[in-house]
Amino acid sequence: MTNLKEQIERNGFVVIRDLFSPEEMKRIQSSIDTFFEQKGVTYRYGLTQPNIAVEEEEFSWVFSHPKVLEAYRAVFGQEDFVFTSHADIHHNMGFGWHKDDGKGAYFTTPYFTPECRVYKMGVYMNDHSMDGSGLSVRVGSHLIDNLTDGESVSLATKPGDVVIFDVRITHAGKEYDVVERGLLKVGRMLGDQNGKSKVGRRVRDIYCGLKNGKPKRSFFFTFGAPNIHTYDFSRENMKRQIAQSGRNMYILSKKLSDELTSQGVETLRFEKEL
């Protein structure tokens, strides 16, 4: 992990192999499976759950995992950093090229600067070592304010690997194919502009099962350097998470907050900002 800071500052991302053990991946997978059996927010005929760090203590052990914190210490090159409280899980979600900067709304000051170090970890439940359906990134695009510059690279990851990437990097998941885009188009024609129909989601689940054999699932969460860019991102992302989840919950459990604090990680409270 000695050169991760240099890599992420230059390229905007790093891949860390086998950070989670097979047993730990089974535990995460089981938690996601159980959660999505009863809950989740339907969007674009997939499922997501924003604000999972606050709303579900089941996942808390991941955020304070010693190897997770070790990896973040390496990419920051320092001991002190901040848990932003952003975390979400996804089921059969797909996105085109974008940045996780809220199109600028997550920051109040110029943020395409070296001082902005807000880094998201992606944990992928599926094996993308050969299928080209994992995360794609535009190398070095975290310092470029557009969605087109930078060499496109598809990251080959397998369960247990993680990707840590700058939230400003241009990236994409596996985009919807012609059938899935057609389903979204039909939904819009019927008045479902954002793909929130549970019937539409069930239709797409069946299609994805036939195409892929099993659901495509992933888990994301974010830490940042202790500066205004991270605090801005944390506050505005919490607003977004609450709006999407529909639940006005924004305080981490005392257990998780204490665990992170004991390991030198700052946690945030948002009462005055929300």
Report on this model:
The longest helix has 18 residues. The model has no long low-confidence stretch (mean pLDDT 94). The chain has a single domain, classed as Sandwich (Jelly Rolls), CATH 2.60.120. Helix 1 packs across helix 5. The protein starts with a helix and ends in an 8-residue tail after the last strand. It has 274 residues and is of the alpha+beta class. A hairpin with a 2-residue loop joins strand 2 and strand 3. The protein is built from nine helices and eleven strands. The strands form two sheets. Strands 1, 2, 3, 4, 5, 8, 10 and 11 form an eight-stranded mixed beta sheet that branches. The chain has a three-stranded antiparallel beta sheet with strand order 7-6-9, with no helix packed on it.
Structure at a glance:
The chain is an alpha+beta fold and 274 residues long. The protein contains 9 helices and 11 strands.
Tags for this model:
274 residues, alpha+beta, eight-stranded mixed β-sheet, three-stranded antiparallel β-sheet, 19% strand
What's the helix and strand layout?
Elements: H1 4-11, E1 13-16, H2 22-38, E2 41-43, E3 46-50, H3 52-55, H4 60-63, H5 66-76, E4 81-91, E5 118-124, E6 136-138, E7 152-154, E8 162-166, E9 171-172, H6 178-189, H7 198-212, E10 217-224, H8 228-245, H9 254-262, E11 265-266
Parallel strand pairs: 4-11
Antiparallel strand pairs: 1-8, 2-3, 3-4, 4-10, 5-8, 5-10, 6-7, 6-9
Helix pairs in contact: 1-5
- Architecture, according to CATH? Sandwich
Number of strand elements: 11
Q: Give the oligomeric state.
A: single chain
Return the average pLDDT rounded to an integer.
94
Q: What is the terminal separation in angstroms?
A: 37 Å
Helical residues, percent: 25-40%
Number of continuous helical runs: 9
**Main structural class:** alpha+beta
What shape does the CA trace take?
A: globular
CATH class: Mainly Beta
Number of domains: 1
CATH level-four homologous superfamily name = q2cbj1_9rhob like domain
Q: Radius of gyration over alpha carbons?
A: 18 Å
By CATH, the topology is: Jelly Rolls
Strand content range:
15-25%
Topology pattern, helix = H, strand = E:
HEHEEHHHEEEEEEHHEHHE
